[in-house]
């Protein structure tokens, strides 16, 4: 089954062992709620969290398309138990963390196929977002996901990567990401472009600093990212706004498309004192597609 790249701006994590936080996340305006069975749930709570997550998704059938689950990574003992518990509830999608490469996605695909068939779910219908930079090895394989089954988006992480490398910090003295982690951000973006899927930016841990969040979200959107992870409901409106083209942007994109339409077969066109060439047209068309006006 072919999946289109996903158009989702905000991806809000909610701990799978907290009914209250899952409910609050679902009541908000996040495009995707990422119910977490991995980092947000302590080892001793994982077994109790699984049926909670199943029951929560099952109790919200009308929201199911946006209720995704971050399972535990394939290099630990919890993945199959997570999937066996949550798949009967038909989650909207699965997030696979700490991958080492495409082979992890292919393994997950086989697990999901079996569980879909067992639960009367259309085979191949559960989409996947992959965390591609949380291991040093995974960094070398960010470009390998073209045609990978189920993958609709790639995202990246800086905390586990620092751990994987043995770094004591992933930040520069001024608080910005160190070179290796900016490289991870670039690799994720290029990997997503290569695979033809959506690039989603990593979290901003300081959820009180919404100005810094807005600045980062707007910057990475200019770079080509189409959405961002959130760890707190207050971050969601800021992210949604940052990744939604403004009316002025939409109007300009329409103008550029119209100029090219009026001059068919022309490679470059003079416009507002400058030159427009084909990449401008491609960018304008992308903006209009994003808002459903293509």
From TrEMBL:
Gene3D superfamilies, per the entry: Phosphoenolpyruvate-binding domains
Needed co-factor(s): Mg(2+)
EC code(s) of this entry: 4.1.3.34
GO biological process, one term: oxaloacetate metabolic process
A GO molecular-function annotation: citryl-CoA lyase activity
Top-level taxon of the source organism: Bacteria
Family: Belongs to the HpcH/HpaI aldolase family.
Identification of the protein by name: Citrate lyase subunit beta/citryl-CoA lyase
């Amino acid at each position: 089954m072919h999946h289109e790249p996903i158009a989702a701006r905000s991806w809000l994590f909610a701990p799978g062992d907290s009914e209250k936080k899952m409910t609050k996340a679902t009541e908000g305006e996040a495009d995707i709620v990422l119910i977490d069975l991995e980092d947000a749930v302590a080892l001793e709570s994982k077994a109790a969290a699984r049926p909670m997550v199943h029951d929560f998704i099952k109790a919200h059938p009308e929201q199911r398309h946006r209720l995704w689950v971050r399972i535990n990574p394939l290099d630990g003992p919890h993945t199959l138990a997570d999937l066996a518990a949550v798949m009967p509830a038909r989650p909207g999608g699965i997030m696979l963390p700490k991958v080492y490469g495409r082979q992890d996605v292919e393994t997950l695909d086989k697990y999901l196929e079996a569980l879909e068939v067992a639960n009367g779910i259309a085979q191949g219908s559960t989409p996947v977002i992959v965390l591609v930079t949380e291991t040093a090895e995974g960094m070398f394989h960010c470009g390998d996901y073209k045609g990978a089954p189920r993958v609709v988006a790639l995202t990246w992480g800086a905390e586990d990567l620092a751990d994987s490398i043995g770094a004591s910090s992933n930040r520069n003295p001024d608080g910005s990401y160190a070179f290796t982690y900016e490289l991870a951000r670039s690799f994720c973006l290029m990997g997503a472009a290569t695979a033809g899927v959506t690039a989603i930016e990593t979290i901003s841990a300081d959820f009180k600093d919404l100005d810094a969040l807005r600045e980062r979200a707007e910057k990475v959107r200019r770079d080509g990212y189409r959405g961002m992870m959130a760890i707190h409901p207050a971050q969601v409106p800021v992210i949604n706004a940052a990744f939604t083209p403004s009316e002025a942007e939409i109007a300009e994109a329409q103008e550029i498309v119209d100029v090219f339409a009026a001059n068919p077969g022309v490679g470059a066109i003079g416009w507002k004192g400058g030159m427009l060439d084909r990449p401008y047209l491609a960018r304008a068309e992308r903006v209009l597609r994003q808002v459903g006006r293509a």
